[in-house]
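User: Show me an example of a complex going from sequences to structure tokens.

Assistant: Sure. Here are the input components:
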Amino acid sequence: MEPSTGYRIDELARRFGLEARGDESRMIRGVAPLDRAGAEQLAFLANPRYATDLAHTGAGVVVLHAEHADASPVPVLIARDPYLAYARIAKLFEKLPAATPGVHPSAEIAVDARVDPSASIGPGCVIEAGATVAAGAVLGPHCVIGTDCTVGAQSRLGARVALVTRVTLGKRVLIHPGAVLGADGFGIARDEDGWVKVPQLGGVRIGDDCEIGANTTIDRGALEDTVLETDVRLDNQIQIAHNVHIGAHTALAGCAAVAGSATIGRDCQIGGGAGVLGHLEIADGVTITAMTLVTHSIREPGVYSSGAPIEENRAWRRNAARMRQLDAMARRIAALEKQVEVLTKERS
Amino acid sequence: MEPSTGYRIDELARRFGLEARGDESRMIRGVAPLDRAGAEQLAFLANPRYATDLAHTGAGVVVLHAEHADASPVPVLIARDPYLAYARIAKLFEKLPAATPGVHPSAEIAVDARVDPSASIGPGCVIEAGATVAAGAVLGPHCVIGTDCTVGAQSRLGARVALVTRVTLGKRVLIHPGAVLGADGFGIARDEDGWVKVPQLGGVRIGDDCEIGANTTIDRGALEDTVLETDVRLDNQIQIAHNVHIGAHTALAGCAAVAGSATIGRDCQIGGGAGVLGHLEIADGVTITAMTLVTHSIREPGVYSSGAPIEENRAWRRNAARMRQLDAMARRIAALEKQVEVLTKERS
Amino acid sequence: MEPSTGYRIDELARRFGLEARGDESRMIRGVAPLDRAGAEQLAFLANPRYATDLAHTGAGVVVLHAEHADASPVPVLIARDPYLAYARIAKLFEKLPAATPGVHPSAEIAVDARVDPSASIGPGCVIEAGATVAAGAVLGPHCVIGTDCTVGAQSRLGARVALVTRVTLGKRVLIHPGAVLGADGFGIARDEDGWVKVPQLGGVRIGDDCEIGANTTIDRGALEDTVLETDVRLDNQIQIAHNVHIGAHTALAGCAAVAGSATIGRDCQIGGGAGVLGHLEIADGVTITAMTLVTHSIREPGVYSSGAPIEENRAWRRNAARMRQLDAMARRIAALEKQVEVLTKERS
């Protein structure tokens, strides 16, 4: 980070509602990791895994929880949630590339598309008939906005984002490069000669403040829309099938996948590589750990997992072979229990 | 769905070989889900999960199996396979964007590329030397057709599909945005200094009527071609490695992956997120459930699965810890059986 | 493969340090699989799975290990590592598309970007302010090189590769189409109203000779950089989260994913679809098998696995149900052991 405008520690405390301890007059001009930060940089300690770095930090100030304050050799800003406080402060030091309003001359805009004059349309973008790009929206190079799709106000699309068919984005939606929204859902029916494609007549509706990761795909619905409510956060390479409905504030980590017509509640967290089978319902407040496969509906909030644990390969081979004998093992235990019961009774 | 040309119920019955019951003179002008359809819309009931919606439907007509006909409050069209019948009928109400024949002025076409005059080449497409685009093919914006690649007649490519090297598409192939076909297979050999890349000298051949999902990748072969026979259906974000061969009518759900030189038979169904290891063979008619890892060849048709079931996290932790003790548990059971046998013999 | 310049077998032996046996004067003009090669083609035998093809081969020469030499009906080139020797020889017969130096007229180059005159910039590329493209680099169509990003000398980017923010590529880096490097890491903190985005202020550094597969994503760091050391090899659709560090010569197969701040050592091999949780450390020389989830740090080289084995679905259902009873089963075994011990003691 190059130096930028500075803020005094007491100014940061006031602005973000934090308690400062130590020399509050220091100037902070950037952020850095705890083990590398210099005297004009702010660091944070949120994950206890990194608490040992605190003793040696050269940071100008550290954002941390009260329980770690006494261990800091430098001034601190005390927060109930240090990661959250850091997130807000770090925004001060982020330089987002400025987007010039207007349409790049190499972009192709259909005559009846509506592009707000304050929107920024990058090189090579294609905006098709009937599409709308609202005020302050920014489209990176090579975005394709299909017929009748809508990009909401202040939304930002990275390079080559494709909105294919009947996609509506809310306000302040952030989409990273390579994402594809509104392609055909995977609907096929079998007849005697082969597969018959099922027309995908629905769309995709993305709520305000959603974030969608690089190369993520969200298919449009078969009849109804595929829906993300407000503030849903999707990491990279996530697959959302047709007619899925995801509740507000739910977050999915990289490579998670949700099959058709599944409904996921609000405030859920789905781990990386996890899968949700089709037509299931997941309640509000459910956490699914990484690479878990959800095979039935989940009605209660809580944490859910599947999978067998990692082991050194030879041990794993021995144990995995036994997994195929588990039902037999259970029956052998039951038989033993009966025999031992008989023996024990006879003894008495 | 906006209203469109209508069809009488008896006309639909005749056209699709279905039995109508109820007022056959009603006009149908669109399709909709069972629980939302109005008097001029057709709905269908295929998944018994949704049978309870039938009693309250306001649809103009419902396509369903004979066993549900009596429960319908509205006219019905009886089909042996309601989902298949629906797929065919719904095509009547699908408005596909019309593609104008010709080459967009911003497309780059190599002088010796052959583009049929009836093909439609979108903005920013790049068609390299020796490539062929046959009659009626439609290329969305920013497609790249590499040297000597071929797009078969009536094939449709969404935005920014890349055919890299030695890719041949059959007729009526449908490819969704972001798919990459014919990139280098992942072939590396190790020497003392590091990895040596193995040249990937084969190509990719895609049969007629295949469908390939958004952001799916199909690598070209190392020596021979990677092959999809006719009517193979791939969902989004699928990875097909070099030299894989997939038989006709096989379908793979989202995020499935097939490693190098694996051969998958005809009429297989591979679930979402499933993996097939390299050099294996899977017979015709095999179904693999979601997130299963296929670690050996499968010679018989049937359904195959792997994985441990989902549980509430604390229960899962207790059980998963025991998976590491399974071999020891099996030995303890065997030891117990011996001891109990001795005790039982002595008793008699 | 069409015929090309030929090489005598003895010339190949000399050039690649191999021992030739049989008629060394034969001319070789291409490469082909063992079971299909003709008299002017070289084949190889590396995987013993294909040893039965040797007896019937019509190849002009076969590269193989000494132990198979006597079984060959045709001349041979004996190598300690036949696959490696083949990789080197096959390069002779690879025709890479020639890239013309210069900037395609449809590319958009910012006035202060530095593009070496020997670099080749394809149609529709966008090179933003402050970016650098070094000597001999080749950018396929529609690549986007973001502000201040650097493409090292002799690097080759396929179609529509995006380097988003603060990405630096070393020399001879090869990136396949659709890859996205330097998009925002997935950093979010929760407040009472919803998610707060954590600014992603780091970058991505890719070492010399790395290869990155199609549609792979590598996020930029939150504070520090995401790093691939030299000669790291990533297959397609891999997800590398922010702040990950991967050591030299490590290879990841398709669809593997590494969560934030994980550190992977040198000379590791990560199987397809495998996952590594965040903040873990994996030692040098570790192999992880396909679809394994790494849930704790690995300190010792070796092979590690997780997962339950594939079975016919009905057997799997029976066994999987028992996985939920494993802890109870273990307790029942322990109880039986106590009872049997008592019975055995009493007997004596």
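The lines above are the inputs; the final block is the predicted structure for all three components together. The longest helix of chain A spans residues 326-347.
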